[in-house]
Every structure is written in C-alpha cells, then in structure tokens.
Amino acid sequence: MSDLTPLIKILSDGKFHSGTAIGEALHVQRAAVWKWIEQVRSLGVTVDAVTGRGYRLKTPLELLDITEIESHLKQIGCDASLEIILEGSLGSTNSELATQSRDGAPSGRVLLAEYQTQGRGRNQRGWVSPFASQIAMSLLWRYNEVPFGLTGLSLVVGIAVAQALKLVGVGGIQLKWPNDIYCQGKKLGGILVEVQGEPSGPCALIIGVGINVDLRGAKDKVCEIDQPWIDCYSVKGGSVSRNELSASLIKNIVSYMEQFQDDGFGAFVDQWNALDYLVGQAVIMQLSRGEARGIARGVSRNGGLLIENDGQIQELFSGDASLIRGQ
What we know:
By secondary structure, this protein is an alpha+beta fold. It has helices spanning 5-11, 19-26, 30-42, 66-75, 93-102, 153-167, 219-222, 232-236, 242-263, 269-275, and strands at residues 47-50, 54-57, 83-90, 109-116, 134-143, 173-176, 180-183, 186-197, 203-212, 282-286, 291-299, 305-309, 312-316, 320-323.
C-alpha cells in the first residue's frame, strides 16, 4: 500500500496524467505504471484509462493529512493532548489500536487509515472500506474510574458523531440504537466501542468510527455493502473535507467522553431521544434467545432501548433492533 501512495497523490486531482508523465515522476517504466494502476483499482478506486490521454480517478480524492487535521483541531479550539497516527492500509483500526493499547499506548492516541482490509462492525460484521472514501478512525481513551459505569457510552459517542457531522454541513442525522448513524433512512456510518479492563475500574476504551464520506468513485467496492447506504456527499449535495471531518469527530468525541466521565449517560438522554431513528415506530429486537416486538419509546437513563408492548415497557440492553415495515 505504501508504494502506491505517490501514484495516488498524482491522480488525486481527478485530471488525466499520461503513463509517461507518471513514470517520469515516479522514476519507473510505463509497464510498472500499468501494474500499479491495477493495484489501485484493487483498492476499490475507479481509474479511467483513455488512449492518448492517460489515467485519471473517476472522482477526485482528498487524502488524509495529519498536519491539516491538527490545523483544523486548533481552529475549532481542541486543546486536548492527542497523538494522531495515519496509516495507508491495515486490517482494522480498532484491532490495531487494541494491540497498541495492550502495549501501553497513551490515552488520546488516534489511529486513522485510508484503507482497511478487515474493517469490523458490531458482532464481528464486516465493514466495507473503499480507499480514501470514508473515515476509518479509532480513538484510545483511558479511564481510571467511571463513577456511573460504561452503560450508554456508545450512545454518547453517537451523539458526538452526529454533532460533528452537523458542523461540516451534513445535517438530518439520526441515531439507530445502539451504534448506527442514519440519514434519510439509510446507513451513513457506525460505531464500535471495545473495552479492555473492568468497566467499573481502570479501563481502556477503543472507540471506532466509520463514516461514508464520498463513495462515488468506489463502485467496485460498494456493491459489497449488504444494506441501504448513503454518504456525506449525497446528503450535503457537495464535497465534505475528510480532514475537516476527522478533526470535528476527534474534538467532539473527546469532549463528550470527558463529560460522560463526570455525568454519566443520564445527562445525554434528551439529546439521544431527539436524534432517535426508531422512536415511535414498530420494531423487532433479535435477542440471544427469542425476540421482542413493540413500539420503540426512546432510551432510558441507563442507555437501554425502551419497547412498549400491550402497555408494558421493556428495557433492553443487547440485541439487534430493526423496523417492522408496514406498521
């Protein structure tokens, strides 16, 4: 992957570049350029090739840049002690950061990747990650003690993500319990929080966030997505800076994590319920044993999903919730 970065930087403007010009810039033969172009395509990036004109990306890409992200963080007033690491390609940002955490990585380390080969969602579901078309980010956060426990933490991260998207012009965000980011009835992103240690004592949290930013040029990858999806470009009706969005996500998540430690999830209930995708609708909850059906009534102060059935309210903390269509 790292060997392809110079080529992708050349093509990232969306303009045509001849094989000869690319070869000269990279100090390689034209035959090597063609092989590299095929490798770029294997990442899910659509590359047009036109005889006599050369190669171009079907959709221009904005590559992530630590300097730009740090500049945006300063502009929006984030003064937290953070360490930002950017990788071209890796298996999963959460898995890699979990390993680094066990090796003693400091709280506040942020890991970003342009491409994931083994991106993960909740319950070990796969997460399709076209190259430079999403945000694939994980944040390591350590708590010495959380007085209120970790119940509702992923919901708080969801609120932080929704507000970060709003700041870059992506509005109309809703949150689907417990960790999905929705817009216009389609999935825009997801959250994966993993815990090392004891929830009531010293622990390390690996907070993973995946956001679809601009998937127009990744047609060979998006066909692998097995549910209705949407991206920031479609919602906003124009480009969204991946570097600006990364900074907004980092700042908001850090800020909300600090407030969560002091106040617990109870301080965020109203914010969540205002963004709730399921509220007031008929839902089915797939549990480890059986299922629960009813009308979603928001979330409790403990972060549980409330479902009403025959006038009785159930508070559920695990399972997969989905809408019952036609009701």
